[in-house]
Design a protein that fits this description.
Elements lengths: L6 H6 L4 H8 L6 E2 L4 H10 L4 E7 L5 E8 H6 L5 H7 L10 H15 L18 E3 L4 H9 L5 E5 L1 H5 L13 E5 H10 L8 H8 L3 H5 L8 E2 L19 E4 L4 H10 L4 E5 L5 E6 L18 H8 L8 H5 L2 E2 L5 H11 L3 E5 L5 E6 H7 L2
Parallel strand pairs: 1-2, 4-5, 7-8, 8-9, 11-12
Antiparallel strand pairs: 2-3, 5-6, 9-10, 12-13
Helix pairs in contact: 5-6, 9-15
Length: 369
Amino acid sequence: MNTALSPLSSKLSKIKIQDLINKKNKVLISINEDASIEKALELLQKYDILALPVYKWNLDKVKEFIGIISIYDILANTVFQKFFDLIDKCENSLDNLSFKTYLQVVKEEDLFFNIKVKNILGCTYESQESWVLHSSESLTNLLEMFTKNNYHRILIFDDEKFENREKNELNETAEFYTILTQTDIINFIFSNKSNFDLSSAEYDRIFNKEIKSLMELKKKNSLTDAEDPNQVSSNSINDRGIKVVTVQEEFSALNCFKVLYLHRVSAVAVVNAKGELIANLSASDLRGMTKERMEDLLLPVFDFLEKTSSKRGIKKVRPDQIISVTDDELVTKVLDTMISKDLHRVWVVDDRDIPVGSFTQSDFLYSLV
């Protein structure tokens, strides 16, 4: 990365990734390549995470990481499963299935949940390659991976921990690895923003500007109101030129997930008949899905969110989940909200509460380079 791009980049080039690792201090949760999708969904839900490093046992019986699987990889393998087509033909309910069809659905579900993790690794762009950075590298290298390469998480080899290992420990085993995400670097930058010794002009350029200026970076994209999850269109562009995929509240959760996948977005805005924002559906809402809960995907999306979200609780989807802002909000305030609420994005609405875009972690990171 060209560290002369901005004063902040120059500051970050003098800080090692090790500093982030020392502050994070979390145990790495990983999964074996032969584990099932069912196990992966269970771990993602249990540890409230979005991705799992995947390892295999090499010839020396030592863990060797081969990639990172995310909830998005699992989503890509869920929404077009054959058993949903079978249920669709019976008015979207298992109760309406013939016994023969029911047995077929059960069989297909079993096959799906027993798919091995290694068989879906690489289904999305981000999991097709496995990248590792060293903790001795600078933060600008990490920032480059998150921006230039559009990754959301990177495996890090902890050089300091490796150097301080006991003599009888194996070299480069999995215990010397950790994972860093966009959230980690944003939290670090935001919490240390007053320590970077930036000029007032540079500080204001990064933190005290309206988010609309960062959203300008998205103008190459389009606005899409997804009427049919099987037909993707990108010809409708709002006056801001921002892409925001919306789905109607009567859509089934399954169809909403299809829209999410087909449009290659991480979340969709759920709107009512007036086009007002009423809920948010992201790939993370698929975590914890079990055989017993698969039929829930056939519910209207709002009902699905109320029923399946233990964090929000019944009848609390709207007030607890949706945090929206207007595009004249300052970056610093929006980041503070995202960090405190552990959000990866916030929806941007107009004065009628109609979604006109979103502000994401990636948007902020792109503004730094």
